[in-house]
Design a protein that fits this description.
The chain has six helices and two strands. It is 47% helix and 5% strand.
């Protein structure tokens, strides 16, 4: 799915920048304390989600802003000026939205609805103390028609705002 319509990226960026700059300023105000205190990013990412930042590239038809990838990139650069770790933590989400834009509507629509509702996609990186090629994480039926992942992942991108304990349901 491509984002429909033609927008003036300059005007779209300016409007979204005005909307998000107060959130970026709030984030910047505590960035040094979070970094030096090794404080995770749940709170500033929650502020971004509340403001709709995680749905800027989601098509308008699904409740997003329908911004182009160029506008999204400019806003991520602005966010990085406030707190460099947050764009890194959101990279899986940004990538998943972009991937969904290139999927058939039947595949993309459920993801877009979830993103528009405020869900954020995140991914884990590796399991601790595994030998090369070894996988300890298992996926088994959860008894309610879905699947549950059991294991331990290390998150290298400060993406600890993700919820690795969620069961997976068919279609998710």
């Amino acid at each position: 799915m491509k984002i429909p319509g033609r927008y003036d990226d300059g005007a779209r960026y300016a409007a979204l920048s005005r909307r998000f700059q107060p959130v970026f300023d709030r984030i910047a105000g505590g960035a040094v304390a979070r970094e030096t205190g090794r404080i995770l990013l749940q709170e500033p990412i929650a502020w971004l989600k509340e403001a709709g930042f995680t749905r800027i590239h989601v098509p308008e038809a699904y409740g997003g802003d329908g911004a182009s990838i160029t506008v999204q990139a400019r806003l991520l650069i602005d966010l990085a000026a406030a707190e460099p770790s947050i764009p890194l933590a959101l990279r899986s989400h940004v990538s998943m939205v972009e991937d969904a834009l290139n999927c058939p509507d039947a595949v993309a629509a459920p993801w877009f609805r979830r993103f528009a509702a405020g869900e954020t996609f995140g991914s884990a990186w590796t399991e601790p103390r595994n030998r090369q090629g070894e996988v300890r994480t298992t996926v088994i039926p959860d008894g309610a028609g879905g699947l549950a992942a059991h294991g331990r992942e290390i998150l290298f991108d400060r993406c600890d705002f993700c919820r690795p304990d969620r069961s997976l349901r068919p279609g998710q």
